[in-house]
Amino acid sequence: MAADGAGAAVPRGPDTTLAALLDGHRLVVTCGAGGVGKTTVAAAVGAAAARRTPRRVLVLTVDPARRLASALGMERLGNVEVRVPPARFSALGDDAEGELWVAMLDTKQSWDDLVARHAPDARTRDAILANPLYRNITARFATSHDYIAAERLHEIDVDGRFDLVVVDTPPSRNAVDFLDAPARMAEFFSSRLLRWLIAPYRSRLVTAASRPFLAVADRLLGAQFLADIAEFFILFRTMYDGFVERSVAVERTLRDPGTTFLVVTTLEPAPAREAEQFCGELRRRGLALGGLVLNRTLPEALATGAAAASARALREGSSALGATLAGDLGASARDVARVLDEVADGYDNLAATAAEQEGRATSLARTGAPTVVRVPLVDRDLAELGGLLALGDLLGA
């Protein structure tokens, strides 16, 4: 237990370690707001598991940032899984028991692969891949990235080549986009708007109700654009049944007992609030919240009454202490006392921030996560394998 600024106890959560969480699952989905260290934590968790156990571990990032590649010293990452050379571990004097593999989602390539696998025939496949609207949607739309990320997760899970897959999900203000994307995609392909757009191109008979809409759309967007839309969705609807089936399959993967969610956050107000809301969403959907990582935290001791008392005592005694130290430091007693006052103020501010963090930690502990891990704010760059393994130790992974 730890105490907050008022002396109240902060629950620490059950004593389930992150290592035990990893050993009990084959798919770990890391989630959280942008900028909380989610990609680094995912890479550290995967590296630690590969070092500690004889498992084949894949870290898959669907975050378009390239931090994972630089952290592992890899020049380039894409859809094809690449093994981190064992020599990288050996060079650190820390041979790995298992294998560490990494990949980064290539949205466009993943969509192309999906179409190639599920189009009913080669002619439909080629027509979809050549359609201008398809190229724009798969390259630019956020929903297409969220959907294909969930699709890729499911694909790797059923492939069975890896014993543990750690997925770094895309950062989002609305963290449930990733979870909702498959169902939203299937819903869109059965929407009334879509039927309105493609009906005139399926039949030469344009209804009186649709004629005014199409006339306005034709003036605003152009006939060729409307034709591209209609062609794209007519072609894509040939894969509609497959979308529905895969949406159900992805949902089944996320609910599988072998899948767990690891929520990463800092204890700053906005990320902590988003993490708490996301944990609630997981509970509401019946998905397994396996753990919380509270990243970049201040020492808990700062939040105690003793810390505040220490700062107060230093401030009150700065004049006398300044006079005592002045001769040894070769400075005036007034200057030394001023520095001591600034130190006391800085410590006081840190103590206040730590107390606020403990309040948020208390609130997050109520989410019921079986594993809660605190990671201190460190003064080293973790953007290399040695740093990731050090972070893995801090995480207890």
Distance between the termini: 21 Å
Structural class: alpha/beta
Rounded to an integer in angstroms, the radius of gyration calculated over CA atoms is 27 Å
Beta fraction of the residues? Answer: 5-15%
Poorly predicted runs? 1-14, 201-223
Q: Using DSSP, what is the number of strands?
A: 10
- Spatial order of the strands forming the largest sheet: 5-6-4-7-3-8-9-10
Characterize the largest beta sheet: strand count, sense, and whether it forms a barrel. Answer: 8 strands, mixed
Please tally the helical runs, counting DSSP H or I stretches of 4 or more residues.
18
Shape: elongated
Helix and strand string, N-terminal first? Answer: EEHEHEHEHEHHHHEHHHHHEHEHHHEH
* Average of the residue pLDDT scores: 77
Helix content: 55-70%
Task: Classify the oligomer.
Answer: single chain
In short:
By secondary structure, this protein is α/β, with parallel strands linked by helices. It has helices at 18-23, 38-52, 67-71, 86-90, 107-118, 122-130, 132-140, 142-159, 177-188, 192-202, 210-221, 223-236, 240-255, 269-284, 305-316, 318-329, 333-365, 385-395; strands at residues 2-3, 9-10, 27-31, 56-61, 82-83, 99-104, 164-168, 259-266, 289-297, 371-376. The longest helix has 33 residues, at 333-365.
Structural overview:
By secondary structure, this protein is α/β, with parallel strands linked by helices. It contains 18 helices and ten strands. 57% of the residues lie in helices and 13% in strands. An eight-stranded mixed sheet has the order 5-6-4-7-3-8-9-10, sandwiched between helices. It has a two-stranded antiparallel ribbon with strand order 1-2. Strand 1 and strand 2 form a beta hairpin. Helix 5 runs antiparallel to helix 6 and helix 11 crosses helix 12 (223-236). The longest helix has 33 residues, at 333-365. The radius of gyration is 27 Å and the shape is elongated.
